Amino acid sequence: MKILVTGAAGFIGFYTSKVLINKGHTVVGLDNINDYYDINLKYARLNELGIDRDNASIFNNISKSKKEVTFSFIRLNLEDREALPKLFKGENFDVVCNLAAQAGVRYSLENPESYVDSNLVGFLNILECCRNFSIKHLVYASSSSVYGLNKKIPFSTDDNVDHPISLYAATKKSNELMAHTYSHLFKIPTTGLRFFTVYGPWGRPDMAMFLFTDAIVNNKPIKVFNYGKMERDFTYIDDIVGGVVRILEHPNKERIEQNDLYKVYNIGNNNSVKLLDFIKEIEINLETEAEKNMLPIQPGDVERTWANVDDLIHDYDYKPNTSISHGVKAFVDWYKTYYK
């Protein structure tokens, strides 16, 4: 297939592009390479895909990978209502994997406009292009944050999610509603994936895994919110991407035949890990005990997440299963190598 992967310089988008290329698909990666976090890491990911930094810095310019003829890259904002349709018209994609978004719960308190631009206007443009250029399937990233103040554990896609507690979560829930509307009105198969706390090598610097490791290595105290009384369904990057690729390659034909064009799945490890246990694994791999600065819970944070993945198992025979010990070791090993 020919697949558009948005957010290709991002953590999940980079891995997804890499796996799809290795499986023989033709991939066009799109990213605006914004400065929400260190752009050098984004360019380094693209370099792993064979894209030269100079070419990746040019807007509206398709650059071909030197390593893989099946990968090309364009720097572009999803909000660009003129350039995005031109890209769709020129490339004739079969399916779209939309992983681009303004990420981060806490940053949405500081810069709400960027979330509206990327996550709402940008997603609408993706939907319009899917509608106008006969895209066979749209797979897009949602988030476990949509569950907000939900008290029922584990979180199920059957649960009510009308109580988000961050603007980021609200935009992700809005994406699901927008996709439902387009599936209903224009018969576009859409699949939303609620990711649960993704971590692993090449991960985002604003995520706990990276922040804790970086602080410990540099002999700085780590910030432990809610005084450590937090639990997360930490999901290793390979497990996330394995689910994304399986759904891209094998859309549920039975569901589509029954005109059930809209679907949302949880992708998580189906296991809730205490934050202090997670930190302990990092300490073990760094052979250093962290100095912990215990702090109250941050606005927009939830105390616990845990994914019910029964639908994913039923429809795709797929379940993430990488252990925390394996995943943390893989990240720490990468961190040591990347930052020497």
Automatic annotation (TrEMBL):
Residues 3-268 form the NAD-dependent epimerase/dehydratase domain. The keyword NAD applies. The keyword NAD applies. InterPro entries: Epimerase_deHydtase, NAD(P)-bd_dom_sf. It comes from the Bacteria. Keywords: NAD. Gene3D superfamilies: NAD(P)-binding Rossmann-like Domain. This is NAD-dependent epimerase.
